[in-house]
Amino acid sequence: MRTVEWRGKPVWVLKRTPEMLASLPKLDGEVADPASERNPDEFTPEYCINKHRSRKPEILVAVGICTHLGCSPSTKFVPGPQPSLPDDWAGGFLCPCHGSTFDIAGRVFKNKPAPDNLVVPRHMYLSDNKILIGKDEKGEA
């Protein structure tokens, strides 16, 4: 995972493993907005409304700010039992301030303080290894 700054906010660019991607469908019943249907104009561009919340399945681009009170979640990629996480944790992000948890696609789990999934900013690939954040083929966000 690499963190870059965009508009004064941390943006995570995460290359997900096949195991991480395989965990996503199993969590659909546990996350609050599995299909990213809430407020798509604000949280998820149309080209990322899919099971991976990304343009390329293996690459997640998300603003690293909790949708509850603006804290920055920490990475908890290792699956399994850990402090403040469920025993069947599949990996993702934990906001330590109030306990909101997000899966590896930035989808918030049900019954957590955060009301929405992590924001996926508009972005586009300039090459296989270069991403432009904040702008896509339709213009700036």
From TrEMBL:
The cofactor note reads: Binds 1 [2Fe-2S] cluster per subunit.
The catalysed reaction is: a quinol + 2 Fe(III)-[cytochrome c](out) = a quinone + 2 Fe(II)-[cytochrome c](out) + 2 H(+)(out)
Query: Which enzyme class?
Result: translocase
Q: Where in the cell is it found?
A: Membrane
Cofactor dependence is on:
[2Fe-2S] cluster
Reported EC number(s) for this entry are 7.1.1.8
What are the residue boundaries of the Rieske domain, all occurrences included?
A: 30-132
Q: Which UniProt keywords apply?
A: 2Fe-2S, Disulfide bond, Electron transport, Iron, Iron-sulfur, Membrane, Metal-binding, Transmembrane, Transmembrane helix, Transport
Q: What else is known?
A: The Rieske protein is a high potential 2Fe-2S protein.
Q: Would you tell me the protein name for this molecule?
A: Ubiquinol-cytochrome c reductase iron-sulfur subunit
